Amino acid sequence: MTTYKGIQGFNIQTLSSDPPSPFAGQVWYNSTSATVKYFGVAEGWSTGGNLNTARSYLAGAGTQTAGLAIGGEGPAVEDATEEYNGSSWTNGGNMGTARRSLAGCGTQTAGLAFGGTPPLSNATEEYNGTSWTNGGNLTTAREGLAGAGTQTAGLAFGGTTGAPSYTSQNATEEYNGSSWTNGGNMGTARYTLAGFGTQTAGLAAGGRPKTGATEEYNGSSWTAGGTMGTARFRVVGAGIQTAGLAFGGSEDPPSTAATEKYDGSSWTAASDMLTVISGGMGSAGTQTAALGFGGGPTGGAFTQTQEYGLSPSVLTVTTE
User: Fold this and answer.
1) pTM, to two decimals
2) Where do the domains of the chain lie?
3) Which strand ranges, in their side-by-side order, compose the sheet holding 305-316?
4) How far apart are CA 125 and CA 134, in angstroms?
């Protein structure tokens, strides 16, 4: 029989309390709580600083420590921009066109916002960290679309032509810093989906009609990827094609706090969000340092921000 001493060369230390400064990989038996513990890496969500303006159906860009919240509705349609520094939001320059259900990509100092409503829009705006200027219009005006990439190499995909029919779109467009050109169509037309990655390595997940389908873009065409464990729409995400994070959304009903990680071929469950949110959150960051903000129930909007990450922690060994 394999034992801990046989592997490590020493027995598990017995302590009456957890060590004040454990080292990575340290294992001990806490005699007070009668548990075996170790110092490892934990993943999960925590509370961040609140948005200044409550809103739903907004767009996001940037990173967990340099995020960008764009537009939305709360209850008026917003042109507001806010910048996140890892702990709090401050107001940035307003967009030229107020809109909700738009998409965003890029960074805090080189952001891109496109599409949205009302009215149904093909407008594109570029952010320089202070103010917005007009860029080239989308070929197809739409709302509920997804975005990925950068300000000079952006990707727009999916969406809907809006009321009254809400016809789902499979169109993909690529931005070069001044104008959009058509790319390969998605295999599944959908809207309120999550977008990840870059212009040449994009990822689409979920969407409406409710689906868990995932597709991967190679710069010219889409191919099917692994299916999410929780089919949903109004889902948002962060990361890249080979390391994505999808969270929140609606299963119609109910709303979901489910979080899933993508490794380039399949999805696995991660820790649930602290609060169930379905109404169009904004998102930013990576698979290991993500940001979700805003959103809300029908007829309302939230200011809350949640941060996802990995951190060294004292963990308890459990057995099934």
Assistant:
1) 0.88
2) 4-43+311-316, 44-310
3) 13-15, 27-30, 35-47, 305-316, 289-293, 282-285
4) 5
d(CA 78, CA 97): 9
Which of the four CATH numbers 1.10.10.10, 3.40.50.2300, 1.20.1250.20, 2.120.10.80 does domain 44-310 have? 2.120.10.80
For residue range 55-101, what is the model confidence (pLDDT) as tens digits?
Answer: 999 999 999 999 999 999 998 999 999 999 999 999 999 999 999 99
Backbone angles phi, psi at 21, to 5 degrees: -135, 75
